[in-house]
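Dig into these lines:

——
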Amino acid sequence: MLYLFVGLLAVLVAWAILTFNRLVRLRNQSRTAWADIDVQLTRRHDLVPMLVESVKAYAGHEKALLENVASLRAQAMTLKSPQQLGQVESALEQGLGRIMMLQEAYPDLKANQNFAQLQASLVEVEDHLQYARRFYNGAVRDLNDGIQRFPASLVANMFGFTAAEFFHAGDNARVAPKVEGIA
């Protein structure tokens, strides 16, 4: 009887250790995925001032749009919460879309090599960012599933594992950008 109890206890301890290690791996995977998003957002944030300056020379009367994009960039650089950052980044993405659409109204801007290079870099960053967001949300889903499933939830609660936030696009991200007031 003692051997049965010791054997059962050993199995239970082994299960708890394996579950703990799996949860640690999932938590680290979601943190790594968030760091990947952060890298892409930093790249985007580095491109924004150069893009704004490039456009200012050609579209000076689009001052409100350019100031709004610069303001959103500054705000996004201070946020850490995936949900809040997702909302600000969606607005920034819309503003950048409007800036890109300005090239249709300003042929000189469209022909500007610097603007074209910045635009290509931004498109590349957006592609990487889209992939990083999907990967992050998948990692968060796996972590949250692992934390919430019984009996793993017992180990998760015992060791303080908490659910992570998904990166959500804001409601305005679902609307195509419009350029207003272009001559």
Notes: The chain has one domain: 2-174. Helices lie at 2-56, 63-76, 82-105, 107-111, 113-148, 152-158. The longest helix spans residues 2-56.
